[in-house]
């Protein structure tokens, strides 16, 4: 298979999905209203609720949801062959992820910026909300702990990525000050920031930095984990315009340019996909393709974490409701393009099938190293750059996205803890400083819990990350279906993805539970069962509400705009 053809088909499908399918969903299903007053305006406070330029907000949303998962998942899943991974990424992005992400954003905007967990109470009931928020908190715990470990590992393995990864913070602070305090337009700050960022990559390539071998009993990886969580705690407490928005915006531009560089290198290098379309010579530890493919590739096809970001931070910054399509659906398309790049790097970045098979000797042998190595080879072959610089570029890309996901993830955990404080009338939990401390402390405990001080403990629940992520996405689609049903709108476009996803993920969760029990991994087993029971309970209550809404018919009056009488929902 020619890599250029595979790239053209994938990108073409994404473009058609955005131009046609997202327009249909936006106008006929969600019925986005440009006159609706969004929470960013109605509840503007200068910290979390801030009306934001849609390009800047797209950058924040895109980089927050991207992380390392749309690279890691496809880079592992191609061991089954490139065709299953490619089909799931393309169809999942167009018909699953785009609707899910835009839908979660729209539902939150229509409900005072509530997170999808808190929104479940008004849509389904208090019990479903409590169970759902537990699952959400556990997922965020996994995301933050594991991504910190992933970043720490990249810093240790690719020390050339350290300088540009931390330098971007200073660049982002400057961008935020120029945009919000000096009123400067986006163009020149963006160009200067990108030039500085790529210049720092050359500096990092020339001056790689590593931490000392051991400090207070912690190795380099453990030290990086601590530093990353100190940073994430500070970043999550700052007003979004100071660091979160501009950092994510610059990272979004960096990813966009990085993808252009990679895809241009594919065209110029014209590599061949050496991996088989369907791999029949699987290593002995590889689990069955069905249903594990659909949880191994979560981000990049559909991801429940996207709904948390959309309803947790993005909805509080949306300037106009019509921006939902651009920010939500196009954000999913961007992540699909990143997943497509990962597939190409890990299947066409090796010279021969023998070389590819020598790398993919087990189910866990793919991941970021395959992406960095294969992608670096393609960039070197297509653009004539040194291969180690191509690897630095891709390693920095992965670090920056994982870091922005951590920024947003810790902030979302703080929101949930504060929401618990409101729900259960615990005044102390409403304090954002205490809520942030609890969130970070839980993540650090998980990261070190089973690592013997090495900062690797978070990886013990990595097998549950994909499944929990997809179960969360399925329940989010179901809650969206209930909202649409109550409004008298068509639900097939959310219910069909829900039915497929809930079936595959429950089967995957049961398979994993059996494996955990057989391997005497009892902690993972009980976590697995807890998540399964809570999710099924939420799903059953949501289905009950859906069927009741169908019998009773749509509500006579839909909700008024948030906090004012400006505009309204059109019939």
Can you describe this structure?
The chain has 571 residues and is mostly helical. The protein has one domain (3-552): Amino acid/polyamine transporter I (Up-down Bundle). It contains 21 helices and no strands. The chain has helices spanning 3-29, 39-42, 54-66, 69-77, 82-109, 116-123, 126-157, 162-180, 187-206, 220-237, 244-269, 289-296, 304-312, 323-348, 353-359, 368-383, 387-423, 432-449, 462-486, 492-518, 522-552. Residues 556-571 have low confidence and may be disordered.
- How large is the share of residues in beta strands? under 5%
Work out the number of β strands: 0
Identify the CATH architecture. Answer: Up-down Bundle
How many domains? Answer: 1
The major β-sheet equals: none
State the share of residues found in helices, binned by percent.
over 70%
How far is the N terminus from the C terminus? Answer: 48 Å
Supply the number of helical segments.
21
Query: Under the CATH scheme, which class?
Result: Mainly Alpha
Give me the CATH fold name: Amino acid/polyamine transporter I
Radius of gyration based on Cα positions: 22 Å
CATH superfamily: Amino acid/polyamine transporter I
Query: Would you tell me the structural class of the helices and strands?
Result: mainly alpha
Q: What would you call the shape?
A: globular
> What are the low-pLDDT stretches, counting only 5+ consecutive residues below 50?
556-571
- Element-level helix/strand string: HHHHHHHHHHHHHHHHHHHHH
- Round the mean pLDDT to the nearest integer and report it: 86
